[in-house]
Structures are given as structure tokens and as C-alpha cells.
Amino acid sequence: MKISICIPVYNAQETIEDLVSAVEQELQGYELEFVLVNDGSKDKSESVCDLLALNNDRVRFISLRRNYGEHNAVMCALHHMTGDVAVIIDDDFQNPPEEIIHLVREIEKGFDVVYSFYAEKKHNLFRNLGSQFNDRVASWLLNKPRNLYLSSFKAIRREIVDEIIKYKGPFPYVDGLILRVTDSLSAVQVKHHQREAGNSNYTAKKLVSLWLNVFINFSIKPLRAFTLFGILVVVLSVLFIIYLVIDKVNNPYESQGWASIMAGITFFSGIQIIFLGLMSEYLGKHYLTTNNTPQWTIKKRSF
Length: 303
Description:
Layout: E1 2-9, H1 16-26, E2 31-38, H2 45-55, E3 59-64, H3 70-80, E4 85-88, H4 100-107, E5 113-118, H5 125-141, E6 154-157, H6 158-164, H7 174-181, E7 185-190, H8 204-217, H9 221-250, H10 258-290, E8 298-302
Helix pairs in contact: 5-8
């Protein structure tokens, strides 16, 4: 079995060389290749990775022209891997290299995809809350099994990679693509360490962007939810009108309460604006997709 270690690289000049060396040490019995994708790093990651590729025949290096985001960089790596299994791992040592073998052994049992999960995560509170929210959203929108944690540290069989990379849109979500094509999934518990250098690259803006990708690109359930909400509002409105007519007949000289009516109008106007915003997101992303916005563009490659 040939294993392709796919690593999206962002500001990892202090860790990427040690990570490659550590993985080689841990997986000595396997045929390996490394696919490093520099996602517009602001430090010297590009030159460090370039030198790695020149000195190590196992390393394939691609540098993107700008920062496209983790999932776009992973898609680029999957396009360029040649192994039987792709193992996606972060560049910061939070996923220890010695845990890769557990994913590989599990996938050797015949599963299409093996995810990792953690007894304790070493992310900050904001990132952990964001992950929990993303997990619940994915369960609702993508019909993800509730006991499956969608970790970025995972192993994917080649046949599934070939299906995933058929997606050509500019807003990929790797886990959403996986759940589209297979339900042969497993998970193994692994350790989770503190970052060895730098800070998390997932800002609030990036997390919101990821959630919008899940909402808009991989499900129409938000639209169906608004449709059901609209039906509920119509039913309640009819009942309220009937109540007002009966109340007016019984109390012809009593005021109907304009303040409550204006509050109701304001509330439902807000709902309409939210719905229009949701529709705009769908239309905008569809426009960018049909306009052939690229998932990534390559600045240089070394392999």
C-alpha cells in the first residue's frame, strides 16, 4: 500500500520539516509520498517546502498564488496524490505522526474513509464551540451519523478520492463530498496535542465562511426550512385573522392594538430579509461556480 500524506501548509516554516521527518520515521514499513500545498503562507513556508522537495524524492510540493482556505488546499493535494490511500494531516503537530498508523490499520480492514476523534481536544474554547456547532449543522444538513466526528485528520481510500476530485466548484467542503459518495466510514480515537508553534489559523471569519459553504453548497434544507416556516406563518395568520374577526364582532368598539400589529409586521419583515439574504447567498455562489471561479491556482510546483 502506498500512502500519500496530504498536508495543507499555512505559516508552518517552523514545523513542516520536522513533521515530514517524523512521519517518515513512524511509517518506515510503507511506501510513502508527501503532497505539501502551500496555501499562500506569509512566512518562509514556501522556500522551506521547496527545499524539502529538492532534497527528498518522496515530497511533491505545490505553492498556490494566494490563500484559498484549508479545504481548497486539501483538494489541490488530492488532485496531485498518487497513493492508494490519502492521509490528511495538519501542519502543526496537533495530530501526532505516530497516530497515522492507527488510521491506516483501520482502513486496511476495508473501510472507505477513517476519521479520527479525540478524548480531549487542545483547541481554545472558541474553536471547540465552533467545531461543536459545525458538527450539529453537518448532522442536520448532510445526514452525518451523529456519532461520527468530522475531523480534518483522516484517511481516504483512492477510489473515494477519485470521486471527490470530480467536484469543480470554487467552494469545496471535503467532508460533505465524502458523505455524498460513501457511507463506509469508521473512526479511531487518537491523541490531540497543543500546537508546537504559532496560533490557530481558523478565525471567526473563516469559520463563518466554512459554515456558509456547508449551508449553501451541500444542502437545500435551509430553503425547505423557510418553506415550512412560511406554511406555519400562513396557518397562524389565518387563525389570528379568525380570532380578530370574532373579537371584533363581540367587541365592536374596542381598539385592536396597533402596537402589536406593527411589532408583528416588523418581525416578519425581518424574516423576509433573512430569507432574501439566504437566496442571495445561493444565487451568488451559483454565479461564481458557473463563472468558473477556480478552486486554486498554482504559483509553482516541485516534483
